[in-house]
Specification:
By secondary structure, the protein is an alpha+beta fold. It has 14 helices and twelve strands. The chain has helices spanning 11-19, 76-91, 119-124, 132-145, 154-163, 167-176, 195-203, 206-221, 256-277, 281-313, 324-349, 355-358, 363-382, 390-400; strands spanning 29-33, 41-47, 52-58, 62-63, 67-71, 98-102, 107-111, 117-118, 225-227, 236-238, 243-245, 252-254. A five-stranded antiparallel sheet has the order 1-2-3-7-6, with helices on one face. A three-stranded antiparallel sheet has the order 8-10-11. The chain has a two-stranded antiparallel sheet with strand order 4-5. α9 runs antiparallel to α13 and α11 runs antiparallel to α13 (363-382). It starts with 10 loop residues before the first helix and ends with a helix. 43% of the residues are buried. It binds 5-S-methyl-5-thio-alpha-D-ribofuranose and magnesium ion. The site of 5-S-methyl-5-thio-alpha-D-ribofuranose (SR1) has 10 residues, from α6.
């Protein structure tokens, strides 16, 4: 930590000029801090004269959204750099290219994704991304299946598990996703109208807590695949043609269901937000249909592509036995529905919320959206054994929203 200092819009330009040969001598710089996540500083450095830019992401020794009272492993960028390189190779570029990681400044320098938008913001503008389901299902199948024991050499896989032990970031998920929202207090954060509803519908629901406890143990102990670890729509850049997944600093070996469930939850929360925010009937129904199709396609493509790739890549003898692959993928999807429910609950009553729901301007509609979100989430967790296709989600949404 001796040479570490916190970068700002001036010092980061100097830092980059010293560290790399990317910009030319005549560069005219414009630098902005664009980080809107909970943890890091993110700078975009643009040379306006030559129209070239890069991103610098620096870890702070604490949680940005909470301040210095919540210290956090500053080396998270090293894990993020390693997994981005692995994901880049496995997915043929469905993540940004990383130029380097600096272990003294704890920052990474990477490709600027110009011409892309953070998916959460795009969806809130009712934009559509026709290739997304195909591309994200590719990302999921390749990063999850190809890093599992089913495919990898067993010893290499265990070495990889060791090198991706990420205790502090995992603890955040264990606490914020799987524990605090199902209890009173801690870092929970909810609007007044939810306090009694949360207590009666979530905290006092013993069956719900039991099911969440099972999902939590799966998260903590099932070192199945190398996960992104925080795959919400704020961790994805999109445009009409292309998808790029960013921000895998929560990476570790965990259950495949975690990445799939987090993603589906965030699509569902945009659907709930759409019902409350978009006033024009035609725009609302078009965007709702699009979201339904995206959920169906993402889940079903994950399933069909996994089953198709299985025969080509799986090396484990017993995993080739008849019926096993269908059982395995369905089991992943069942647990993904449980994860989706946990993600929806924690984004409503926990520490970290989502703009989709929190930005609903009308108080009554926001209250209804938040309560609908909690109700549907409970259904997903308790009935997850019946959820193994995209259509199963839509049926539950139609019944409960
Ligand atoms: C203290 S970090 C809160 C949340 O932000 C990250 O994006 C993860 O989702 C984490 O749970
Ligand atoms: Mg993030």
């Amino acid at each position: 930590m001796e040479t570490y200092y916190e970068l700002n819009v001036e010092s980061v330009v100097k830092y980059v000029k010293e560290k790399m040969d990317f910009f030319s001598e005549d560069a005219v710089f414009e630098c902005t801090e664009i980080g809107d996540g909970n943890l890091n500083l993110v700078f975009r450095i643009l040379d306006v004269k030559n129209d070239k830019s890069i991103i610098v992401k620096q870890a702070l020794p604490y949680v940005r959204a909470a301040g210095e009272d919540w210290p956090l492993d500053i080396n998270r960028g090293e894990i993020e750099t390693r997994i981005l390189k692995i994901e880049y190779d496995l997915t043929e570029g469905l993540v940004p290219e990383v130029f380097f990681f600096d272990p003294e400044m704890f920052c990474m320098v990477m490709e600027d994704l110009r011409g892309y938008i953070i998916m959460r913001y795009g969806l809130l503008e009712a934009e559509q991304y026709p290739k997304f389901a195909d591309q994200i299902s590719d990302f999921l199948v390749k990063t999850l299946l190809l890093t599992s024991d089913l495919v990898m050499d067993k010893k290499d896989k265990k070495e990889s598990v060791k090198s991706f032990i990420n205790p502090e970031l995992c603890e955040i998920t264990e606490d914020l996703v799987y524990t605090e929202p199902f209890n009173v207090g801690a870092r929970n954060n909810m609007e007044e109208f939810l306090v009694d509803f949360h207590y009666e519908e979530i905290v006092q629901d013993k069956e719900l807590s039991l099911e969440v406890a099972k999902l939590k143990v799966d998260f903590m102990t099932n070192a199945q695949s190398l996960l992104h670890g925080d795959l919400h729509t704020g961790s994805i850049f999109v445009n009409e043609d292309s998808t790029k997944v960013i921000d895998p600093e929560f990476a570790f070996y965990g259950p495949m269901a975690y990445d799939i469930g987090a993603l589906i939850a965030n699509l569902i929360m945009n659907y709930i937000s759409t019902q409350a925010i978009i006033e024009d009937d035609h725009v609302r129904s078009t965007h709702s249909d699009y979201l339904n199709k995206m959920i169906i396609d993402t889940v079903n493509l994950f399933k069909s592509k996994s089953l198709a790739l299985w025969d080509e890549v799986v090396t484990d003898e017993m995993a080739k036995k008849e019926g096993f692959k269908e059982w395995f993928i369905d089991d992943v999807l069942v647990n993904a529905a449980g994860v989706a429910g946990c993600e929806m609950i924690r984004r409503t009553v926990g520490f970290a919320h989502v703009k989709d729901i929190d930005s609903i301007p009308d108080d009554a509609k926001r209250e209804k959206a938040k309560k609908d979100n909690l109700t549907l989430a409970k259904v997903l967790i308790k009935n997850r054994s019946q959820i193994t296709t995209g259509e199963n989600y839509i049926n539950m949404m139609n019944e409960w929203l």
